[in-house]
């Protein structure tokens, strides 16, 4: 009588597959939500909604982590007991 061997799937493959599955699900939900929003808002209101959403995304991208990097520099300068006014003015 033979024993069945269970095949163990490597953890990184499970993580990669779940990542791809989540991206596919998100894309599907976005397609459905566009159709749903178009029906509810109409073409003109949907265009305004899309424009405002796009502007918000651009503003959040424009930050480019300036706040986080500024916080790191200020922490280093405080630890060295140096002035950090120039960094705050430049940001």
Automatic annotation (TrEMBL):
Q: Where are the transmembrane segments?
A: 12-34, 46-66
Query: Would I find Membrane among this entry's keywords?
Result: yes
The alphabetized UniProt keywords are:
Membrane, Transmembrane, Transmembrane helix
What highest taxon heads this organism's lineage?
Bacteria
Protein name as it appears in the record: Transporter
């Amino acid at each position: 009588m033979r024993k069945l061997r269970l095949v163990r799937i490597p953890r990184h493959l499970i993580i990669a597959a779940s990542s791809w599955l989540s991206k596919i699900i998100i894309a599907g939900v976005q397609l459905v939500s566009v159709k749903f929003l178009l029906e509810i808002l109409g073409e003109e209101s949907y265009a305004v909604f899309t424009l405002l959403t796009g502007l918000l995304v651009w503003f959040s991208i424009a930050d480019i982590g300036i706040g986080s990097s500024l916080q790191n520099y200020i922490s280093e300068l405080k630890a060295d007991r140096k002035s950090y006014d120039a960094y705050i003015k430049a940001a």
